[in-house]
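Sample 3 of the quickstart, ligand flavin-adenine dinucleotide:
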Amino acid sequence: MPDPNGFLRYDRRLPARRPVPVRISDWREVYPPAGEELIREQATRCMDCGIPFCHDGCPLGNRIPDWNDLVRTGNWDAAVESLHATNNFPEFTGRLCPAPCEAACVLGIGGGQPVTIKQVEVEIADAAVARGGLRPRPVPAPTGRSVAVVGSGPAGLAAAQQLARAGHAVTVYERDDAIGGLLRYGIPDFKLEKEHIDRRLAQLAAEGVQFRTGVDVGVDVTAEQLRAEHDAVLLACGALQGRDTPETPGRQLRGVHQAMSHLVAANRVVAAAGDGRPALAVLPDGTPIDAAGKHVVIIGGGDTAADCLGVAHRQGAAGVHQLDLYPEPPETRDAARDPWPTWPWVLRNYPAHEEGGERVFAVAVQEFVDDGTGQVKGVRIAEVSVEKRDGRRIVTPLPGSERELPADLVLLAIGFEGTEQQPLLEQFGVRRNARGAVDARPDWQTDADGVFVAGDMHRGASLIVWAIAEGRAAAAAIHAYLGGVGELPAPVDPARQPLAAR
Ligand SMILES: Cc1cc2nc3c(=O)[nH]c(=O)nc-3n(C[C@H](O)[C@H](O)[C@H](O)COP(=O)(O)OP(=O)(O)OC[C@H]3O[C@@H](n4cnc5c(N)ncnc54)[C@H](O)[C@@H]3O)c2cc1C
Ligand code: SF4
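Result:
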């Protein structure tokens, strides 16, 4: 029986982040472990409210009150078991999830302080490693059926693990040189050290999952070959088509890049160099894309932009501006606009924001300014108002508000336009819809029979927790399609949306 008064005795507390000067001198994670005393105290704040809206906030349906109480009482092995019953990779979500569960926690009603669910989750995930490692589950007798998973992000990996554990032969195809999708080369080490991925991959491999890196499906191997070799195919290729701004004057200048080019280059250097100060980050063609000594302007206000900010500081940028088209959000939930338990529009301060740089809200770039040699030297911005008319976004510059910011490196972090246009789509006979995503039927099959889709490729650029949830659900559908015995858990269906006020 959970402690009904814990939240009255204890305030919400998170572990202190590592000091800024220390953490920007390396690439290690920002948060140290919370320690058993703090995390048991925080888990005690969960009152087991009876109708846990946090379950609905979490697309995985994580059994949050159950494992909070197991942590409170020190039953770590049972907490590990309970958490893994719904989540294949809590070490990723515990570190990276924006925690829609916390926005839906009863303790957050009326501006209160929700349980630190995500922190409890990561401590349980790390306890699993500390208490005997991520042991592979015994695999049942082979079913004789085989599945190809294309793409090795969290959606593909979650599906692969579920299917292997059901006895199917699973091969994951990845065009990169390493497995992990955006977790590997998109998200920097200061948010997720890569040993967490490697440890989980060892478990998947021991459970029978085969990995084939450096294979661009549609180029190195055709859809026809894949279909001939496997009984079903899951496409989990992500939504990696970066949005651009070709109409802005000066876009072609040297020094103006997609944010992902910057992040991938930086992550590759860290991967090669370990924990030392990295060498210069370069594009695949050798062009430097390093922020050292540079004035950096990051355009965009989301996860990707914050990751660029953290990377720029670790590379030694001279100064960083981060531009957002929208006005500064409020610090707290506007209950009229986003009532509890929905996800609120509030100012999100990532750890990268306390490391330096200046955020500029309600501005739009008018021009990337040429230094006369074809290299960017500045960004001309104007203050703007943004309104929605007939479903379209209208951006209006304020006359006389223009000014120039210095910029040697400009990073476009303005979102993604769905999955990439690539040969694989046509070969499998699947189409991108108006959002650039690939539609799924209610059983996760695409327009092509036996070809399933999950994760960002289906949902559009989203979150790791959604990718894992869709990977699990698609695996359940594939298992049924292959005539597997029993049912696998399916936390979401293809039409499921985040909690919303209707
Ligand atoms: C910079 C950045 C930071 C983010 N930070 C967070 C965060 O903090 N928290 C959070 O919850 N979410 C975050 N996200 C979103 C999150 O990373 C994604 O929602 C998630 O990774 C999607 O998983 P996925 O498996 O669908 O696809 P991905 O992780 O994108 O993986 C798709 C994989 O498919 C491979 N692929 C594509 N085509 C082929 C092909 N033809 N053949 C073989 N392989 C192919 C790609 O190389 C890639 O490895 C972030 C996203 C970005 C870009
Ligand atoms: S995965 Fe995300 S939403 Fe689900 S319990 Fe963990 S932090 Fe909350």
